[in-house]
Write a structure and sequence with these properties.
With 508 residues, this protein is an alpha/beta fold. It has 2 domains: 258 residues, Alpha/Beta hydrolase fold, catalytic domain (Rossmann fold); 185 residues, Four Helix Bundle (Hemerythrin (Met), subunit A). Helix content is 40%, strand content 11%. It is built from 18 helices and 10 strands. The strands form 2 sheets. It has an 8-stranded mixed beta sheet, with helices on both faces. The protein has a two-stranded antiparallel ribbon with strand order 1-2. β7, α7 and β8 form a beta-alpha-beta unit. The longest helix is centred in the last third of the chain and has 31 residues. It is globular and about 70 Å long.
Length: 508
């Protein structure tokens, strides 16, 4: 591997520098029955205990609040980043940078073990910059000030975040005398979207990107709006048609029971809620979240990513629901399934439907401005009640919350999406789009090779950015092979870069 890093870029002797969330999906901000599924989110996960990562340092970089306007006295903020030179045994090494998602950056560093493994293999510097307005990287001094109103939130955009990454990288490489260092980007979910977009928008900054579970096509009409919930439903139906049927029937039962105060009290007791249920929407959203998360993290081994869960958790939920097949009480069977997700360890004595999710306010704003991902549910292929995406209702919510109107076409204008194969084939290169087809976000991902350097790596049994997680003894062979393909592409990018860099240096 020494040949790959011989012309990298770290100043030896600099010493050890160093160095998602709670983030996950489809938030259901309630505006009434099932019109609640308005604002979607590719990566809002509940906090889980952190795995042990390599040693890293926490540092801060002074960023402009606004990269795209000239101000006589520009506002700045401190962007937090994690950096490690632990694996940089060579004086010159590549930089592997993870594009920070919507949450505390430590969470992503701790849950992206594959990057650390690659850093050891390639002798790379590791960089995890935190996304502005998340974690501790707050413009205007505090989260309260940053989230005060639409004026203070106006700088929370993907474009500004990418500019942050570019500024940080440029300054870091300059100060470390590492201007010629090749940068490889990584990202999962929203971070994967940022990694792909950064490679496309700033090809002079990074030589390639691993974009895992990146739904860059989940905009406008690029994919059918019912794709996400169709895939969630297929995951459950693939385990058990009876399980699918019970879940599908449960929504009407829930609404019927919840029409009276006595019914709401009954639901409060049946689902062991910590506080009195005020309406069925709260409970529906809680159930929606569980099914969505389960489909996303349907990993082939036990994991603690969103919650402590067994291997193939969708199967275990269906087993719990089906275990009561002689029980005519559908909601009791549903509760048994919910308990697998929310209480697999058995430690919970009651369930809090109003649990705070880190990053939720920030993503709510992003979804109300540029990150408009239309979603619907089709009664013919979904275990969820049918509903259609209503842009007018979406706009009404955003106007009420923030006084802003969403821009549903902006992402495709800024980053592309329409005729993606033709466009990227001519103008893009060096991106691996990896997706597991059990992941409902794969429906908005790139699932076909576009060119020899724009590659789709697909696994039928893969789930949400499973490839970026740490390797384990329980990894199936297909996952091992998926990572080997990604490693091969990174080797190719670095080799090509060094060949070109050598040629340029020799000619000059």
């Amino acid at each position: 591997m020494a040949s790959l890093v011989a012309n990298g870029c770290l100043n030896a002797g600099l010493g050890l520098l160093f160095i998602a969330l709670v983030a996950n999906h489809a938030a259901a901000w309630s505006l009434g029955r099932l019109s609640t599924r308005l604002l979607s989110h590719p990566h809002r996960l509940r906090p889980a205990s952190l795995a042990t990562a390599d040693t890293y340092d926490i540092r801060y970089f002074t960023q402009l609040v606004d990269h795209f306007a000239y101000h006589p006295h520009p506002s700045t903020f401190q962007q937090r980043y994690l950096i490690s030179t632990e694996h940089c045994s060579e004086p010159n090494s590549p930089i592997f940078m993870y594009c920070g998602n919507e949450g505390k950056i430590e969470w992503f560093a701790q849950n992206t073990g594959f990057l650390w493994e690659l850093a050891s293999t390639f002798g790379a510097l590791v960089l995890f910059p935190e996304h502005r307005y998340y974690g501790e990287s707050m413009p205007f001094g505090s989260q309260e000030a940053a989230y005060k109103d639409a004026d203070s939130l106006a700088y929370l955009t993907s474009e500004q975040a990418l500019a942050d990454f570019v500024s940080l990288l440029t300054d870091l490489k300059k100060n470390m005398s590492a201007e010629a260092c090749p940068v490889v980007l990584f990202g999962g979910s929203y971070g994967g979207m940022l990694a792909a977009w950064m490679r496309l928008k700033y090809p002079h900054i990074a030589i390639g990107a691993i974009a895992s579970s990146a739904p860059i096509l989940q905009f406008e009409d690029l994919v059918p709006t019912d794709t996400f919930y169709r895939i969630v439903s297929e995951d459950f139906k693939g385990e058990s048609s009876d399980c699918f049927d019970v879940i599908q029937q449960s929504w009407d039962v829930l609404d019927t029971v919840g029409q009276s105060e006595e019914g709401l009290q009954s639901l409060t007791n049946k689902f062991l809620l910590c506080s009195q249920l005020n309406n069925t929407s709260e409970l529906e959203n809680w159930m929606y979240a569980a099914y969505e998360y389960l489909a996303m993290v349907n990993y082939p081994y036990a994991a603690n990513f969103t919650m402590p869960l067994p291997a193939f958790p969708v199967r275990e939920v269906c087993n719990a629901i089906n275990a009561g097949y002689n029980n005519t009480d559908i909601l009791s069977r549903i509760f048994a399934g919910m308990s697998v997700y929310y209480n697999y360890t058995g430690s919970a004595t009651c369930f809090d439907l109003g649990e705070n999710i880190d990053g939720i306010d920030g993503w709510d704003w992003q979804a109300c401005t540029e990150m408009v991902m239309p979603m619907s549910s089709n009664g013919s292929n979904s275990m969820f009640p049918p509903y259609t995406f209503d842009l007018q209702q979406y706009e009404a919510y955003c106007l009420e919350q923030y006084g802003v109107k969403p821009m549903p076409t902006w992402i495709t204008q800024e980053f592309g999406g329409h005729s993606i194969k033709k466009v990227l084939e001519n103008f893009g290169s060096n991106i691996v789009f990896s997706n597991g087809l059990l992941d409902p976000w794969s429906g908005g991902g790139v699932l076909q090779n576009i060119s020899s350097t724009l590659v789709a790596v697909i696994t039928e049994q893969g789930a949400h950015h499973l490839d970026l997680r740490s390797s384990t003894e329980d990894d199936p062979q297909w996952l091992i092979e998926q990572r080997q393909v990604e490693i091969a592409h990174i080797k190719s990018w670095l080799s090509q870069y060094q060949d070109q860099h050598h040629g340029y240096a020799a000619s000059s």
